[in-house]
Amino acid sequence: MNSRRYFMKQMSGAALAIGASPSLLSWASTAQSGSIDVPGEDGMIVRSFRFVDLETPVEYFNTWLTPVPHFFVRNHMHEPSELSRDDWRLTVGGEVEKPFTLTLSELSKFETHSVVNTLECAGNGRSLHRPQVPGIQWGKGAVSTARFSGPRLRDVLRRAEVKSTGKHIMFRGLDEVPGKVPPFIRSIPIEKALDADTLVATHMNGTPLTKHHGFPARALVPGWIGAASCKWLTEIKVLDSEFAGNFMSPAYRFPNQPGKPGDAVKPEDTHPLTALSVKSVISGPLDGASLKSGRVAVHGAAWAGEADVVKVEVSTDGGKSWNPAALGHDQAHYAWRLWSYEWKARSGDYNILSRATDSLGRTQPAAPVWNPSGYLYNAADQVKIHVA
Ligand SMILES: Nc1nc2c(c(=O)[nH]1)N[C@H]1C(S)=C(S)[C@@H](COP(=O)(O)O)O[C@H]1N2
Ligand SMILES: [Mo]
Predict the structure, then answer these.
(1) Confidence (pLDDT) at 292
(2) Whose CA is closest to atom 12 on ligand 1?
(3) CA of 243: how far to CAs of 38, 347, 351, 359, in Å?
């Protein structure tokens, strides 16, 4: 048992021993914002005892590519327990002329393509919504960036010869479904599936996918919410309409019109989430930091889903005035940009903000768009610091 598993087991044992006390669970889920922290292996923040849900601390947002051990993990259920390279199969069927099944070595014979993608969970930042909403109480770090490689989904689909009735592509993973909950199955529209950058990814940062990230193969739907990128992929099915199931509806839907915080939203007034919003996060100085006066680099990362980040601005006076940040050298269409702003800090208490603008003309709002499930939080980021 590796130390992370050991840790998880110890912790869930502790939670069980005291009857899974809600106070202990909420203590864990509010760990990042409170003074008590629950460090996992490699300093990752453990957001759930039940399944593996690990958040990346924002101070790790200092490399363009996130090292795999620092890449956030989001699981809705148990990771598959037995997964051998030799037994794994991928079936391709549904609205196709030629259904087939592939082994891993057959899959690896397709041409390989690489995409640097920032993957963000739709629920990232959920804990910052007011009023609070149920769900994993992510802080700011359910987002990471990696170079994903593998065959293009469209090449796999071409071999199967999709019929004209094929409109949506459904993915099924091998996760183990606990009790009576529905399996994690979702679908994406055929247009996105046929995009040259949508992958059946087998590698991340040049090495085979680890189990946490979907070994041996996952869908990679760049620029879209993380939930589109199904892990432990075992079935690709072409459908004539969107997949009907819990993880398409009611989950992962957004109100068509922004409502008042706390208001209920009718299902018919919602649509499925697709691409990510424009967003930036400050990775330093950290919230609550005490610094010496002088030169201070305010830095972070900014991303915009299918759009490009064109500008990041920093305010050191609580949002009254804004200064342009320098954008980092490394860039790719679906990847975040690192940014930094050099500030001459004099003593005092400061409210530092960052906001990004993208190639679609979208700018991060001052306040988030509240919604009942707390998706796509993207208000301008904020840290409070003291300069001595
Ligand atoms: N089979 C399966 N795929 C899945 C999930 C899951 O629970 N099961 N979680 C999804 C969600 S909600 C997110 S945000 C991403 C997270 O990918 P990561 O764990 O590699 O960071 O995986 C997606 N793919
Ligand atoms: Mo997610």
Answers:
(1) 97
(2) 227
(3) 37, 57, 45, 31
